[in-house]
Amino acid sequence: MVDVPASTRIPRGYPLLIAVAIAVAGLCYSSWVLEFVLPIDTDPVNSFLSELDAEGKPYREVFATADKLVGLLLIPAAIGGLLVFRRRRLTTVGWVALACFGASTIADAMLPLRDCDPAVSACGGGLFPQLHQPHALTSTLAVTSIAVAAFAFSAAAYRYHRWWILREFGVVVLVVGSAATIWMLVADNLSGSYALGIAQRIQVGSMSLWLLALAAAVLVEAREWTS
Question: Whole domain around residue 136: which residue ranges?
Fold first, then answer.
């Protein structure tokens, strides 16, 4: 069978649409910065971002809508990535994980954090608090999915010698996000306050930056393959 050149397999407009969708999703996922603009009484050092769109919060719809847009943009973008770009094992894992991340953010918005008294055992705690707070489960799935996507695309960038933006800038962002995640996991099991709110904001901010890096990589990769 004759291998059809990549330039004939990738219509020029499709990668642009995929890149724009991913970039806009990255910007929407950084909607938490509005907490510094809107009249919201939050403590960024110690509060979690899930509290911004918790049940009963005044600007819940703003943040929930942004999360839904993330999912509605990333799911078709990931499917488009699978159909448009050459399929390889690591990039396939990356696109599928990206779609899972999009679905998880939609679920995150539809299952907001509930007001809960920590003294009540049914509210959470124990080994599996996710069983008591569905929002904790969807948030865990979202973070896990984008972590898998980031690691898969980074590994693909090195193994296949492509996606150079992810080899350089993307890996730096991935390291910063991973450090913030470790900060949260360790500090959450220690007594005292360790600025978990700052750690989560660094973590989520790195996710948005990585999505922007992926969008740029899609554009560059498409330009190389269609030139």
Answer: 11-114+132-226
